[in-house]
Amino acid sequence: MAEASTRVALVTGGTSGIGAATCEMLATLGYRVAANYCGSEERAAAFAQRTGIGTWRWSVTDHDVCLAGVAAVESALGPIDILVNNAGVTRDASLAKLTPDLWRTVIDTNLTGCFNMAHAVFAGMRARKWGRIVNISSVNGESGQYGQTNYAASKAGILGFTKALALEGARAGVTVNAVAPGYTDTDMVRAVPADVLTSIVERIPVGRLASPAEVARCVAFLVAEDAGFVTGATIDVNGGQYLR
Ligand code: CAA
User: Is 108 within a domain?
Assistant: First the structure.
């Protein structure tokens, strides 16, 4: 495990699933962590009570709201050194059944949310000559998935966004990377119809879902002090699923 750090990390969608595991791992390593969330206040309160990690509620879909949210976190904890763009949603439907609303909800949250949040922190990171941005993509953005044209497009878009922004941050000490999880044991994956999920897990070479902590471990690597030469990269955490 990397050395402890006192840097400030903000994780979007940080009170559940992969985001919560990431918050907890970074806090254990000594980072000062802020968890953004947009959904259940009860879940966020339970998370804060259990972990001692502060939570901030806003939607990553709104640019100005992101600027205000980042300002609020920074006035509480100090400048944000690390951004983990984890907030994401699914609205699965085959294209024939996909409405413009279902398309927009997924693109606005998963992809535009990354832009909104990066836009709010990137100038400060560049000015301070140090920063880490990790964007959570998905194996389904790499391979495609039946019923996920919206989600796969958003997650593939994140990979292009990551590589382009990595070039813009490189000389200023700001790395930008992606983690592409496979099917992970979260509420999002548990919402997949049971028979469909069983057939998916049967095709994962490792033979099981990932744990959220296994994904968080990769984020922790990418944000470490000694990971400064890793930028524009994608770490696959999919149990070999993409190989099949
Ligand atoms: N490949 C080929 N055909 C498929 C298929 C597949 N994977 N899945 C369904 N079909 C076929 C069915 O056999 C059926 O065919 P017939 O009409 O000939 O009988 C047809 O598609 C059904 O089409 P519908 O549009 O009526 O589909 P539906 O309304 O029944 O539901 C679905 C489709 C919503 C995509 C549903 O199958 C589903 O939820 N699938 C899971 C998608 C998935 O894996 N989501 C991942 C969520 S978690 C996540 O995304 C996290 C991450 O990053 C990994």
Answer: yes
